[in-house]
Amino acid sequence: MADRRRINGPPGSTMPPVFEDDAGQPEIKNGKGRDRAPNVIRKMFLKTGVTPSASGSAYLEFAGSSNSGVSGLKLSCTVHGPRSLPRSSPFSPHIVLSAHVKYAPFATKQRRGYLRDPSERDLGTHLETALRGAIIADRWPKSGVDIIISIIEGDQDRETSKSQGDETWDMMNALSGCITVASAALADAGIDCVDTVAGGVAALVEDAGEGSTPRIVVDPIPSDHEKVLGACCIAYLPTRDEVTNLWFKGDLPASDAGLYTQLVENGIQASRNANRVLVECLGEATS
Amino acid sequence: MTTSNPTLAIPGQLLGSTSKYQPGPGTHIHNHNVHASLMGTVHIAQPAKAPGPVKRLTKITPAPAPAVLPTISVTVPTRSAGSDHAGQKKREVLPEVGNVVLCRVIRITPRQAVVAILVCGDTVLEAEWQGLIRVQDVRATEKDRVKIYESFRPGDIVRAEVISLGDQANYYLSTARNELGVILATSEAGNAMHPVSWKEYRDPETGLSELRKVARPY
């Protein structure tokens, strides 16, 4: 995407040099691991009403991992509307939802373009599906609402090489964050929802070291583990006990069907945890 | 307000059974229970006093319960405390069928007047919604003799009632009632005029009168 009118950053990855430590940690990459229990998600910070010009807005930040260079995910969401539909669009008896997810150009190691690429459009579609199950669309006939999320910082490890990280797993974490932050922003905008929807990720990972068996963890950081075998991202309504969006990816042994159920259950658990933060944040905002 | 009820609600929160409350604005029914659908403060209106303009309920409402049930509703608080957007941060409302709205005439054609809806009920709308007053909706009698240019002019402020959500772009409005019609008009000379009869406004400076569908003053 050569844009001649802007001063573009370097097209490749921008990695600060990592100098070898004097103490000589031999293998940085394999020396670290997950620093949380398998069923504990990262700490997060959520705040609504950060953008005064929008009808509703929220900001979400995940804590980084303490023993790796992962800096944590930072998301900002604005909700515009309900507002009238453009004249060209057909009559709609319910609200028209449109979700846009955009990585900031500097959010990841690999610089992003200014236009949305297919993976960002994919995230937008997933987000839209997740939210559509939560909002009461027929309360707002003939109107549209735009949900715009900018990923200010993606959680990627500064030290891992480009080849090792698989972007899909990062996308899953980003999606779960997007769902949670969009839910808070929708509540802030005063758009009718049946519930507060929150996202959660569970993954089947293989740790470094010989003879370790695959285990299921929630809210995985891909660089904490040797390999991620499969993961699922879930959008879940806790009071209704409904799943609005489910995204599964990876190679799981086909023989073990119980593994799929376990992954989904852990994903739901993760989103319940995220929802607790969401509820507390909204409670603070109303009082 | 009873003490057992939470005063603050977030979407999805259980407010009570449908046998105890009627759902008001900002709530919905799920499994015979009233849940909140907005983030805000909970209000319980006793049925004795009229509970304001009731927002349209969910599609699946039980048969109108005997009017002994109090209505429970959730309203979004206006932003305050250190925000300079205190008054501005209001929840958007939509014009609905039956609402009385204030609008400004944008342009007129022989068949219809196109208006911009500015105020719905008591709330000033943030977004601008377009409305249409068709020639047959201008007044209730002698509909075939109505001429749009003898009823409205661009720039007039009109009080009208929403009669339909209309097509994709316009709400359909009607002024076919005595208290509906033009409430503020300027003459061709540019002066504010005052109403003199049900179809006439007069410019106090030039003394010329112009035809309008005049709203009866309250």
From TrEMBL, chain A:
A GO-annotated cellular component: nuclear exosome (RNase complex)
Single annotated GO MF: exonuclease activity
InterPro entries found in the cross-reference section: ExoRNase_PH_dom1, ExoRNase_PH_dom2_sf, PNPase/RNase_PH_dom_sf, Ribosomal_Su5_D2-typ_SF, RNase_PH
GO BP, one annotated term: rRNA catabolic process
Organism of this sequence: Triangularia verruculosa
Location of this chain's protein in the cell: Cytoplasm; Nucleus
This protein's record includes keyword Signal: no
Keyword Transit peptide assigned: no
Identification of the protein by name: Exonuclease
UniProt family annotation: Belongs to the RNase PH family.
Region (Disordered): 1-35
Start and end residues of each Exoribonuclease phosphorolytic domain: 41-191
Keywords: Cytoplasm, Exonuclease, Exosome, Hydrolase, Nuclease, Nucleus, RNA-binding, rRNA processing
SUPFAM superfamilies assigned: Ribonuclease PH domain 2-like, Ribosomal protein S5 domain 2-like
From TrEMBL, chain B:
Keywords from the named record: Cytoplasm, Exosome
Keyword Cytoplasm carried by entry: yes
Subcellular location, record wording: Nucleus, Nucleolus
Pfam families on file: ECR1_N (PF14382), EXOSC1 (PF10447)
Domain of life: Eukaryota
GO MF terms, alphabetically ordered: RNA binding
Record-given protein name: S1 motif domain-containing protein
PANTHER family: 3'-5' EXORIBONUCLEASE CSL4-RELATED, EXOSOME COMPLEX COMPONENT CSL4
SUPFAM superfamilies for the chain: Nucleic acid-binding proteins, Ribosomal L27 protein-like
GO cellular component terms given for this protein: cytoplasm; nuclear exosome (RNase complex); nucleolus
GO biological process annotation, one example: RNA processing
Keyword Cytoplasm: yes
Chain intervals for the UniProt region annotation (Disordered): 1-29
Domain S1 motif: 96-176
